[in-house]
Amino acid sequence: MTEQVQELIGKEFPCLDKGFVRLIDVMGDDAAIVQAARVSYGAGTKKINEDVGLIRYLLRHLHTTPFEMVEFKFHVKLPIFVARQWIRHRTANVNEYSGRYSEMKDEFYVPAIDQVRAQSATNKQGRAEEAFDPAVADRIRTGMFETQSRLYGEYQDLLNADLAREIARINLPVSNYTEWYWKVDLHNLFHFLKLRIDPHAQYEIRVYGEAMAQLVKAAVPVAYEAFEDYILHARRFSRRERAALKALLPSTSVDPAVLEAAGLKGREAQEFLAKLDELAEL
Fold first, then answer.
1. Rounded CA gap, 5 and 7, in Å?
2. Which of 56, 67, 161, 208 has CB atoms 3.0–4.6 Å from 186's, for a disulfide?
3. Strands (E), 50-204
4. Residue 196 falls in the annotated catalytic set
5. Which residues pair with 131 in a beta bridge?
6. Global pTM?
7. How far is it, in rounded angstroms, from Cα 119 to Cα 280?
8. Are 179 and 214 in contact (CB under 8 A)?
């Protein structure tokens, strides 16, 4: 673990109005990915640029097992409705704050004014691009806060009446904050980030994804750059789309200088040219 990463351990990265992400621990780094891929090698027997090339090759060709050798443990404070989206990623170890054992906290998420928006006309599960009029948005936010305060007050009354915590909590809204420890390997974390920092992801979970992405980038910079190049910003083409590309492209011949300017060289450049050859053969 580098000194830079050690300084990040335990540091809170604020998310939304009351949440946060904290990096608790990291097992492994870029070198651990290389070591797993080669199974066993003598330290110093490979050049750094060869290690970088290997990591990029592995991710480019979806040889993902070596990335599972690196693990991250996070402490996350998040609204329950965000947690319900998050928990769909079933490839992690989770331990959540329990409302059966402990009293739920008087902490609820209220969206910022610019996030109070109408239902999207084109996306059935998303919000529109434009925010409501500030006066309307403020009235909505005030109503949310008043409802949350009333429900928490009723929750306290039930506890004071000696009702079991596990029953008293059931009327609390999904805007209530919870906390958990979330441990995941790098392969599955990359999959989480691909979905959750995508512009189409819900804003609230995207905030957490973006905070985590910065921590991952600091811990495994080479792997994260490969993730950006080959997964996050990459696009797949179907057979029909490839046929359309063939019709649209006037030529599949490429000037080597163009490849070099795009950062494609060596084996990666050869693989790109092979893809173009396949396109020409359609």
1. 5
2. 67
3. 71-79, 93-96, 117-119, 127-131, 177-185
4. yes
5. 117
6. 0.90
7. 44
8. no
Choice among 22, 56, 196, 206 that is catalytic: 196
The domain spans of the chain are: 3-104+176-232, 110-174, 239-280
pLDDT (tens digit per residue) in 31-53: 999 999 988 555 555 666 789 99
Backbone φ and ψ of 265, nearest 5°: -150, 165
φ, ψ at 189 (rounded to 5°):
-65, -40
* Beta carbons of 22 and 10 less than 8 angstroms apart: yes
Architecture of domain 3-104+176-232: 2-Layer Sandwich (3.30)
The candidate with the shortest Cα–Cα distance to 269, out of 280, 281, 258, is: 258
Residue 58 phi/psi, 5-degree rounding, is -60, -45
Q: Where do we find the tokens 């996070």?
A: 74
> Which are the contacts of 259, defined by CB distance < 8 A and separation ≥ 6?
265, 269, 272, 273
What does the block give as tokens for 140? 């909505």
